[in-house]
């Protein structure tokens, strides 16, 4: 049986044999000795990493080591509440940092980002925090909820997320209010020019 270490745009951990294109973690071990998920996070540092870095090798869900999580692509990771790792994705971290608005033009530090993202990703009961917005106002890279399905907003279209790939493409309605899954600080970074890395299946609809 596949391990419960895939992440959907809601931030939920689920089982799937599908492979992701990015890895990440939530600050520590979410699993027990039997490799079962027993908590949703350890701290507020939720990061997105590359699958391979400097030849390092890990055994997934090693006891007392951080839990490796996997995402279809970076847009899904952002929707779940993660941000680029400052070590293995240093260039992308700095790009995200530059897109993050801060009063007075002061460079925002990782700890500040993590604190603000944590407030935006979870409510006081630890549930996924969402908000409503006009679809026309959202920049590329956001995830929205329509019915029970999660869609990627990209240019003039909406792409249906599945664990394996984006499964369909629909025209982006011009007048519609939607529930936004991507935390507001990440949405603002997209608005300021940061573009998440997408799964190749998006290009299949071009």
Task: Outline the structure in words.
By secondary structure, the chain is an alpha+beta fold. It has a domain at about 5-90. About 20% of the residues lie in helices and about 20% in strands. The protein contains 4 helices and 12 strands, in the order E-E-E-E-E-H-E-H-H-E-E-E-E-E-E-H. A 6-stranded antiparallel sheet has the order 7-12-8-9-10-11. Strands 5-3-4-6 form a 4-stranded mixed sheet. The chain has a two-stranded antiparallel sheet with strand order 1-2. Strand 8 and strand 9 (about 150-155) form a beta hairpin. Helix 2 (about 90-100) crosses helix 4. The longest helix is centred in the middle third of the chain and has 12 residues, at about 110-120. The radius of gyration is 16 Å and the shape is globular. The chain starts with 5 loop residues before the first strand and ends in a 15-residue tail after the last helix. The relative contact order is 0.17.
